[in-house]
């Protein structure tokens, strides 16, 4: 059996040829994604490059994923920021969506206008435990229906409000789906039904919007969001199959031109004594996406997170040169470093993007005082003992010093003692960018996908 996997990315379309008899990747190739004209053009260009490397390749199965044109853009609405709003964001992120904004309580007119400007593909509407508050989710449903944009709505809130929600949705021409509550009881998470509905809507609606209808017909299998494919690959590498062991807990860092995605495969239980956990329970397989941390399309926003004076001193490069490089890359995303100094700036920016993204993903400790003395609270996952950090994405893979970039994920006890980041991880690299490919392959050949990842994703 021969497989061809294709990842239609925002910038590049990446192809991977796999032979099950040989049990290996025969070759990979990439070409610019041609979303503005016809994605098939980029696919054909990539196929030509692939066959120049490995010869004529006739595949038995074509498996595809996509984040083209920015991927699946979503906003999430909930009742309380730390509870249903967070659960909504968790469900959307785990389904492979790019969560642009999360809202809590009843949305205001200004927030309605903001959603209009965001123009999302999907809106995940949550709020209230089953039998609890239903006023907020009903009010928000009415306000979403008033927004003159063609987004779909998935309602995953208080089941007591389902009848009224169905009546409200009858007044709109938007596609609306009602599913199980993401938080049916206080501090109980139920994100899988919403995750499946997001995937279904991606297949039924987004494929056509992104021009992937022809590819869907060629494949005969569902095209899924790329981050969902990567998440599946990460989970397989971590857990393994029923008979074949994975490598255990890991963190994966996917640094792209528009976003930085962080994946953690770990329970995240506290690693130190005298800790009280706060907030919602975290899933073993967790993904977060940072839309303001990218190496090109969101480079200006990322630069705002950096103290430029300190950054300039660290690199021993004039601040003006750094700012000039950022402006050049933001204006022309195809810009690549042409000398050692530019490469050093690029590497420094990449490391900072990783640092900030991992801090947002990881849990954090805070001191708390009780009658028995000082203790600490932990909000989120404690990733201190995670043994592996895996680098994904062109900015890491193509760097002359990927380990330096990935070191941004590591805990610095003197500078960021409260973040529960990995303390002393081993660094690994997905040199051929096969995580998404193996996530797709695992649907049919999980044992082979695991074997290939163990061989191809190596320590640095």
From TrEMBL:
Pfam families per record: MutL
SUPFAM superfamilies: Actin-like ATPase domain (SSF53067)
Transmembrane segments: none
Name listed for the protein in its UniProt record: DNA mismatch repair protein MutL
Organism the protein comes from: Prevotella corporis
Lineage of the species this protein comes from: Bacteria, Pseudomonadati, Bacteroidota, Bacteroidia, Bacteroidales
